[in-house]
Amino acid sequence: MRVLAASVATAGLLLLPATSAHAATAQPASTGPCYTSPSQKNCDRQDPIKQGCNADAVTVAGFTVTRPWGKIELRWSNHCKTNWTRFTAAYESTWAVNVERQSPHLQVGEAVEIAAGGQHYTDMVYAPGPAQACANDVNSDNGACTGYTK
Length: 150
Description:
Number of strands: 10
Distance between the termini: 26 Å
Helix content: under 10%
């Protein structure tokens, strides 16, 4: 489980366009097999930070949803050809957070307790094709996916 402290303020239904940050492209201090030789075998279900894939990560799809309950981001590493989900909760609950590769289909994620303002990221899927990020409050109807995008 990876939970990080973060702040989130949401109000009403606010859809944000996908953001793109230009992260440094230098090789990370520590890398794993996914970084050195990207493939389904080396990347599926692996931690993006431990593999070094976060070094060039950008958010390719993200939005903040009403009531307010949180922010879902689909993260992408061009070097590793991987996606993962980063979710920031607006209130404390048990959240099912996952990332899905469209083809061949694979869903990676877990249910995790996240405090208000807390952040969680999933393991990766090797996805040179479409993928989506999802988060759902297991105790209510709050939840959504980014939709498949690349």
